[in-house]
Amino acid sequence: MVVDMKTLISTNLVQSIIAKEAFVREAVDDILQLTQWIQEVFEDGGKLLLFGNGGSAADAQHLAAEFVNRFLINRRPLPALALTTDSSVLTSIANDFSYDLIFVKQIQAFGKPEDLALGISTSGTSPNVVKAMQAARDIGMKTVALTGGTARPGGDLKAICDLVLNVPSDFTPHIQETHLWLEHVVCEIVERQMFGTP
């Protein structure tokens, strides 16, 4: 049993690395495009609005914290807002209208044309993320999605987002691990572009 669990650990690590390597091969130019857009948004007085469900909600909050506080450099706070954190807003919208609108109404409340909407959905089909992206497009915001999958890369978000960074894996944990890696890389690049080397 101990040997089997050690094999599981090693195999899982290798597969996670393979997922990240495959993602980078496909998406390196899109990663750089995303960092450029985020930098431009911050420099032009806009903000980054982030959202997702479950583990992707945690990612949205994590990324917002890195920008507002710091990643590797002590610098001025950067305006990033996770739309997953206000329980009163989330539950009132879900109760009075629909769970599908929990991000839509916040995009409509806070979103401006100079902002960027970053939605995170492992499948690319989460209805509340898809609807929020459409709302962001209606406002004139740039729209970016982090997704995963091989059968329908980007899911429903592919057709409505300006940029989709899709992890070519069907194993949810590896998709989420790759998203977190990407979020850290994006933070580091944006910080370096705006504030120099740590």
Topology:
Layout: H1 2-43, E1 48-52, H2 55-68, E2 80-82, H3 87-96, H4 104-110, E3 116-120, H5 127-139, E4 142-148, E5 163-167, H6 172-195
Parallel strand pairs: 1-2, 1-3, 3-4, 4-5
Give the key terms:
198 residues, alpha/beta, Rossmann fold, five-stranded parallel sheet, 5 strands
Protein model, in words:
The chain has 198 residues and is α/β, with parallel strands linked by helices. Helices cover 56% and strands 13% of the residues. It is built from six helices and five strands, in the order H-E-H-E-H-H-E-H-E-E-H. The chain has helices spanning 2-43, 55-68, 87-96, 104-110, 127-139, 172-195, and strands at 48-52, 80-82, 116-120, 142-148, 163-167. The radius of gyration is 17 Å and the shape is globular.
Q: What would you say the CATH architecture is?
A: 3-Layer(aba) Sandwich
Span between termini = 45 Å
Principal-axes geometry comes out as globular
**Strand arrangement in the largest pleated sheet:** 2-1-3-4-5
Low-pLDDT parts are none
Question: What's the number of domains?
Answer: 1
Task: Summarize the amount of helix as a percent range.
Answer: 55-70%
Query: How many strand elements?
Result: 5
- Please tally the helical runs, counting DSSP H or I stretches of 4 or more residues: 6
Query: In angstroms, what is the radius of gyration?
Result: 17 Å
Sheet of most strands: 5 strands, parallel
Mean of the pLDDT scores? 96
Q: The CATH topology, please? A: Rossmann fold
* H and E order: HEHEHHEHEEH
